[in-house]
Amino acid sequence: MDKRKGFTLIELLVVIAIIAVLMAILMPALNRVREQGKRAACLSNVKQLGLGWVLYTDDNDDKIVNACTGTGGENPIPTDEDGWVHWAGYSDQTSETDQITAVKEGALFPYVKSERLYKCPTGLRGEMRTYAIVDSMNGWPSSGPNVKNRNDIRRPGERAVFIDEGWVTFASWSVPYDREAWWGSAVTQPGILAADNRHKDPPPVRHGNGTNFSFADGHSEYFKWKDPRTVSYGMLEVGSDPSQTGNPDLYRVQKAVWGELGYTVSPW
């Protein structure tokens, strides 16, 4: 007679339950490790773009590459310049091939020749570029001081150049110089594709409620958001407002972009 003994149904159920508990404990940790890996890869990407940006200025008598997207003569790019990348349309409306072509035709591609470096690993399907240059670095003419020449940058180690924007527009990345607010308006419908949300520049939150920047001296840095209002507006939650008095995240980004605050901080 075969005396071998197998598992009973109860024993199998207990083992399955233990495995399920272990998975529930381990999965958040594994997700954090995966996100940290993507964040590190993104940080390396913006650093490489930043170094390419520096090399461009070296070859062009310290003139900074235009931060908007497009060809010379397209608003607001002067006829004698070219955008750091070209504009192929929004990623949900444009093929991946056309987006890659727009990257390769840009003024910065000879200095950063790998198209994969223009996209964060957390990018959504169909997004072939997630990075943008900030307004102040020869970008969209907004309310703050617009730098055209690298020699005019004071404290380059504190001045942001690239940001992992996520959803990108044809313009450079904006944050106001002269008021305590992010760029945009109050959110009435959730999601970047809703209503006029395409034209907002909320603080990116893809990397653990933070994002990556590169700086004019060539280094890159991760900014972790501390104020819940930053995250709420970054996620474009209904009711979130870009005007955020007393937000340390906002002050930090405005100083990195513009070099200073163009207003007196409100008492709060």
Which range does the strand content fall in?
5-15%
Q: How are the strands of the largest sheet arranged?
A: 3-4-5-6
SS field, number of helical segments: 4
| Secondary-structure element order, N to C | HEEHEEEEHH
Radius of gyration computed on alpha carbons = 22 Å
For the sheet with most strands, the description reads:
4 strands, antiparallel
N-to-C span: 84 Å
- Give the overall pLDDT as a whole number: 92
Q: Uncertain runs with pLDDT below 50, 5 residues or more?
A: none
Domain unit count: 1
Helix content: 25-40%
**Strand tally, please?**
6
What shape does the CA trace take? globular
> Which class best fits the helix and strand makeup?
alpha+beta
Can you offer a commentary on this structure?
This protein is α+β, with helices and mostly antiparallel strands and 268 residues long. It has one domain. Helices cover 29% and strands 10% of the residues. It is built from four helices and six strands. The strands form two sheets. The protein has a four-stranded antiparallel β-sheet with strand order 3-4-5-6, with helices on both faces. The longest helix is centred in the N-terminal third of the chain and has 51 residues, at 9-59. The protein is globular, with a radius of gyration of 22 Å. The relative contact order is 0.13.
Descriptive key words:
10% strand, 4 helices, two-stranded parallel ribbon, 268 residues, 29% helix, alpha+beta, 6 strands
